Amino acid sequence: MNKEKRSLLQNGGVQSFIASIICILLGLLLGYIVLLLINPAGAGEAITALVKNFFNYPNAQVAMKYFGSTLVKTAPLIMCSLSILFAYKVGLFNIGAAGQYAFGAGMAIYAALAWQLPWWVCLLIAAAAGALLGTVSGVLKSYCNVNEVISGIMLNWITLYAMNDLLTNVKETASPYTMHIESVSPESIMPTLGLDTLFTNNQYVTIAIPIAIIIAVIVYIVMEKTKFGYELKATGFNKNAAKYCGMAEKRNTILTLLIGGGLAGLGAGLFYLTGFEQWSCGQSSVPAMGFNGIAAAFLGGLNPIGAIFSSYFIQHITVGGAYLDKSMYCTQISDLISSIIIYLCGFVLFMKYVMNNIAAKREEKAKAAAHAAAQEGGNE
């Protein structure tokens, strides 16, 4: 029984789940402390409202509608987290996912508004745009020894301002926002297949969520069950050993960042082709979705299936922050609480490291005790 219990606690999946729960609880606790310091009178109600999100509405139909809106924002976060973890499994840190997301968004929106292409073509263009940007980092890494973090950060800003400039050609006359896709090119909006009815006629709930989940499953299969995935991970563990075994380490590096970029770009398409949000041509900050993908990837234990749930949780908390009482707390406090929780998501691997050490020490003590007992029995 003890042996079975120990093996369960040492299981990677169980450790990831426990570590994620601990980080979430710590984040909520710290958030509550911050609320207490600012205004203790409403701290309890505020943290409850943040966690409840759409459950704050007593009407079930209204709650379902806003639940759908949370899912709309979850789909791109799933894709960005997949982009991050896919590269991380191969020993690369794809911080350029934010720029790849921006490139995918810009090209998808432009293809819809300027060329009025069907939604599936716009999605492919978004994925190709992100993949192209990822390939640039991959080539620089493989042939010029430029760290992917440096090239990724530089490309993030280059891409943001390039997309701002491109999309000024399809923006509204009296505002910095791009035109509404549904009014200019309805065929560029992703189909709902009845999901909008399920979520109280929320027109923005499309097939984006099923697509994101299916892709997460495919990424899991590729990484864990195929020769290609094994070669990529082997390259990440030790590229010199992989090269010695006949694996093309440069090709694998480029392919990894290409695929990671494609996932991030596709995520942008899955979001903007719902018509849920317009692009602001005057924005001066890189989309946060790419950076939040880092937290979602680690909170999910760097597992594609775990990324589905962690992405939803992060988006749930982020959206839930809007329900804080603004008469007691300023508007930015919801972002602060969400940021604390997201920040702590990065400590999942550290928590797993701590649990592994604790388990190893307990196992050593158990072996020492068993050895001592055996010696005593022999002496008798």
Write the layout of secondary structure elements.
Elements (H helix, E strand, L loop, with lengths): L1 H8 L2 H27 L4 H10 L7 H30 L7 H17 L5 H26 L3 H20 L13 H4 L10 H4 L9 H18 L1 H11 L1 H6 L4 H24 L15 H12 L4 H17 L11 H14 L2 H32 L1
Written description of the protein model:
- The structure is a single chain.
- By secondary structure, the protein is mostly helical.
- 74% of the residues lie in helices and 0% in strands.
- It contains 17 helices and no strands.
- α2 (12-38) runs antiparallel to α16 (332-345), α2 packs across α17 and α15 (304-320) runs antiparallel to α16.
- The protein is globular.
- The model has no long low-confidence stretch (mean pLDDT 88).
Summarize the structure.
Helix content is 74%, strand content 0%. The protein is built from 17 helices and no strands.
Please tell me the overall pLDDT: 88
Structural class: mainly alpha
What overall geometry do the principal axes of the alpha carbons give?
globular
Q: Could you spell the SSE succession in H and E letters?
A: HHHHHHHHHHHHHHHHH
Report the biggest beta sheet as strand number plus sense, adding barrel if it closes.
none
> What percentage of residues falls in helices of 4 or more residues?
over 70%
Strand residue percentage? under 5%
Query: How far apart lie the N and C ends?
Result: 28 Å
Oligomer: single chain
Radius of gyration: 23 Å
Count of strand segments: 0
**Poorly predicted runs:** none
Please give the count of helices: 17
